[in-house]
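Today's session is about reading a structure prediction critically. Students often jump straight to the picture, but the first step is always the sequence itself: look for stretches that repeat, for charged clusters, for runs of hydrophobic residues. Only then move on to the predicted structure, which in these notes is written as discrete structure tokens rather than atom positions. Here is the chain we will use throughout the hour.
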Amino acid sequence: MRAVDCVERVDLGEVPYEDAVRDMADWVARRRAGEIPDRLALLSHPPVITYGSRTPPAELPAGLTVPLVPVDRGGQATYHGPGQLIGYLVLNLRERGPGDIVRRVVNGLIAACADLGFETVRRDTPPGAQSLVGVWTPDGRKLVSIGMRIRGGVTSHGFALNITSDLVEFTRFVACGLPGVAMTSLAELAAEQGRPAPAEREVRDAVARALGAR
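Below is the predicted structure for this chain, in token form.
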């Protein structure tokens, strides 16, 4: 997003998913009422698999190794857990003017990854195909999942960026509605480059800068 689109940065630690959703609903109501500015909350969750209303039951794990939670955002099933940076965006789009907010978020995250030394790309979704919204490596691995909701001109939910995530968890179900999708992490990409993974604080700062949050 443009630097002029100032967003309030809120840094949190590990927050249970249900608590975060409750807090986010309050932020949305307060943003709609003009009581708070646009906000980017950065946090993590204990292990949980979230899924939307359009997720086929067959795409969910057969064994409940982690909690399953239905959500009201876009996108299909995904895993959240330690080592992953969650970003929840509460933005008043009526004040920001026209534009594809999801694409702006994707482009911002691509810029953040570049700032950290990683090349990533956006992929277009073919007509009638499962959504490819997110941030990908050039060789087709998915690094960031994105699922947002817009109601009354205000956004909620956001993105999940894998830093040191346990990628095995993504193989226990159909991640993002894409059978066979290969998920990756900054730790995996850094190891391929022969360097350490960036620290979470470094990733948070890069993401906040790219999304105009401070």
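Discussion point for the tutorial: The longest strand covers residues 142-151.
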